[in-house]
Every structure is written in structure tokens, then in C-alpha cells.
Request: fold
Amino acid sequence: MHIPENYLSPSTCAVFGAAMLPVWWMAVKKVKEDLPREKIALLGAFASFSFLAMMFNLPLPGGTTGHAVGSVLLAILFGPWAACLAVSLALFVQALFFGDGGLLAFGANAFNMAFLMPFGGALIYRSLRRLLPRMASAAIASYGGLNLAALMAAIEFGVQPLLFTDGAGHALYAPYPLSISIPAMMLGHLTLFGLAESFFTCGVLAFLARVQPDLVERGEASFRGVWPLIGALIALSPLGLLAAGTAWGEWSPEEIAGQTFSGAPLGYTPLGMEQGFSLAALFPDYALEGLSEPTGYILSACIGTALLVILFKLFSSLQPKRADYSVHRSEA
Amino acid sequence: MNKLPDWATRPEKYQASAKRERYLFRSLLYVTSLLRSFHALREERRSFFSPLAGLLALLVFTLLCALTHRAVFLLALYAPLLLALCFLPAEALRRILLSALLVAGASLLLVAPAVLFGGAGLALLIPVKALWTMLALRLYGSVFSWNSITGALARLRVPGVIIFLLDSMLRNLDILGRMAENQLSALRLRSIGIDRQGRSLFQLLGTLFLRTQAFGEATQEAMVCRGFSGAYPRPFSSGWQKGDALLLLAALLYCLLFFQKEMPL
Reply:
């Protein structure tokens, strides 16, 4: 679901970037106001959950792949504003260091996965919570949130050939119209990837409810059980390499001419992709040049996770300490 | 009625200047705060690794960092270091990152001519290496107390005289730092309305020097009384911890990776 560089026109990217600016501003404000510094540091650890979840690619018949995102899990545990900030930072680290998702398309990716998904998921979760148990609500909310984000990404892809073409009628950016992009994107997300998102969200929630009930029940911050879980996810991250193929809409410019989603090979590489903006990432596709793929994947997972935790810890260290009177009140 | 003495009736000729106290409290207080930072070495954090395993791993990783000339290997070295930094409290993390980034920035300035005129290539690795080394050293210093570090040095058969010099130097820096800070606070409280920063500075430094002499003599007397010759006995217990095997295994894997990348057969 990560929209790569040059799949969206610069003007589309600018619109989504501009739309996200007030959201980020509000998210920072809300996190500073609502979350104590201990919980901000914990948010960094959960941002790394999202980062790691996005590294686990799952294969679909037909050669395409996808992954869970973890935004709804964060929205359930910390609220949608905190989830928005955490997933935005995870996406930024991915785009900047690992070339996963474009830097220009960062605003659009953040809109889909860090705004629509956690807010949509949180809305579904809160509506269902009165009727269903926690796990069932979380499963449906995460499934719904992921599909909402996938639908938005499909629309963003699909409007490109309607708006931006060259003199020969060829698309300048993403080449497939809505009639192809929506079914192609939604097929995987309504089936396997949506279920994977639900499985990931419920699995982590169930684990936390057992080892750290204070966080799940009352929202109290503690790192208990979080580090082993992150360690296990890092160690298992090379499983994401088992999925051969490229996710729909994430082909390289060299691959795109051979795609046959319109019934025949596309036959050309859109001009915007050939001549568009590109920035060499330090670890392109989570690989380190000269190292085996699994080693590169594990080291990338370590670096990405650590960067997110460190960023949030630094952010938390800038927050003033607040006195907690709740203990005395309850004791009295 | 008794007449007031002359000195009490003399008007103060104090003129407030913009520079008042600036030198004294910006420069000297900064130096004393650095000395005080050695105090942090006295506190030990909970660690899964023993000081000895940490020291061995630090030596191996630092050596690999210094020897490598491949950016990829250097970036790979950052993975365990960044993970270890995650476990530090936020305040300590910020302090360590700030000081390490300062050193890396300074080394970037030093290599700037080479980067500008000779191409970025290997020259740019130096600030990255400096950043890694500073982060690793500060991390080790912030996790283990000085006592446990001396124990680890003794186990590695480092000569006692070196450990003694380091030990006494750090202890004195800690005590002198606290003393200088107290004197500066006293000076600040008593210097209201007057501006004697130049003279006060030398008096303060002189007092510190005399105190250092006194400390040296006191240490010498204490050593004679206790029959301490400056040789640090090695602790009886092995001191290994559960996580040590993991740390040493990681160091070994990085060694193998280094030889594979830097010296392929």
C-alpha cells in the first residue's frame, strides 16, 4: 500500500501533503497535551510494531504481495491522534532510509495509513465496543480500517490517468484507471491482507491483555512484555522475504511496462516515472549491499525499530514532567 | 552618637554592565558541569550484560569500526548500537546523543576540505565512525558504574597503576566538580551589587588547586593506613551474566562479517 515515488503527480502529492500538515500539527498538540512522557516513550515502541508489521509481506496468487499496517492497534491503545503521529513517523523512516514509499508521496501515504486508517478504525471500534467483545470489535475495526486505506490508495492511483496524460494519450504517472485499480487493490485487501491485519491486531492485543493488562484496560504505560515481542518480530522479519513478487502499484519503472492488468502488457513506462524525482535510500528495499537478504532485513528491522523508539524517547524527554495526583486521590 | 567608619560611608561605584558575570558563569560553570557529569559514572543501571562482557564487546566493535572502510559494514554496526540505546532513559539518551553529535559535527568540519576537494568517499566515513565510537563509549559509561568498570579492567589484567590513576582521577574530578559548583553558587549569592569576576575567578581556581593538593595527601595517607599499594585484586566471582553469551556471539558474528567483507578469500 506504500505509494512509491512518481506514481502520483507532484500536484497530487502537494495536495495530500498540505492536507496532512494541520493533521500533524493537531496530532503533536494532542499528544503533548494528553499523553504523559512515559506513554510517549511507549508510543515509540508501538510505532516500531507498525514498522515491523509493514515488513511482513504476504503473497497472493498472481504474484502480488501485501502487508498489515498496525494503525488501528495503535489507535485502540493510544487514541487515533497518537496513532497518526506514530504511523506517520514510521512511514517517514521507511521512505527516507529504506525507500519504501516515496518521499514526495509521503503526504498521500500518511493520509491513507496514518490518518484514514486509525481514525476510521477507531470510529468502528468505538461503535462496536458497546455491542461486541473487545477482540471482535478490534478484528472488525482493523479489517475495516485497512480496507478504507486501501480503497483510498486505489482511488489515488486510479485518478492519475484521468488527470495526467501526454500527447499520445499515455499516462504520465500511475497508468491504470479506477476500473482496474480499485478491484486490483481491494481483492487482496478484502481477503488475505485484511485478515492479516485483524490477526496482527488481535494477536498483539491478546498478548498485551495477558502480560500487561494495565495498558489495555486502563491505558497505563509500561514496557513489560513489549521488548520480547519486538525482539520476536525482528527475528521473524525475514519471513517477509518469502513472498516473491511486488505489491500492486509498487512496481519499479523497469517492471511496469510488462504489467498485464489491462489485458495486455502496458507496453510503455510513464514519462513521469522515467524522468521523475528519485532519492537513493541508505537501505533500498531493506537490503544492505553485499549482505545476504535475510541479514539485511534483520539489520534494517533493528535500525528502523531503534530509530523510532529513540525519536519518541527524545520527544518525551522534551515534555515537562507532570505530577500524578490520581494515586493520592484514590488512596484518600 | 558614634560615627560610621569611612569605608561604610563610601558610596558604591557599581555600574551594571551587559557582560557582568557572563564569562565566569558561562565558561567556568560549563567546565564544572562537565566535571560534575563524571558523577553519573557512580550510578549503575540494570543491565543484562556484565561489565566485562560489555568491555570486551566494546573493544571488538570499536576495533571493527576503526578498521572498516565499507559504509555498509559501518551502517550494519549501527544496528546493535541503536538497539542498545533504546533501553536508556529518555534524559540520558538525549545527553548522550547531543554530545556524540557534537563530536561528529566537529569531525565533519575537520574532514570538510577533504570532502570538498577530494570527493566524499572515505572521508565521510570518519564523522560516521566518530559518532559510532562516541555513542558506544558514552553508552558503556552510562550503563556501568566506575567501580564495575575497574573490576572489568582488573579482570583483563590491565596494570594496577593505570587503573589506580584512572580511578583517582575520576574520583577527584567528581569531588572537585561538586566543590567548584558550590563555590560558584556562593560567589553568585554574595556578589550582588559588585562585579569582581576576574579576581574571583583566580581565587576560585587557586582554592581548587590547594584542595587538589590536600586530596592527594589525604589519599596517600589513607593508602598507607590501609596498606593499599595501588594493586587492584581481581574479584573472586566470575561476574558473567545471562546476556553475555548473546553479546559475545554478536561480536563474533560481526567479526566473521568483517573478514568476509573486508578480506574475502
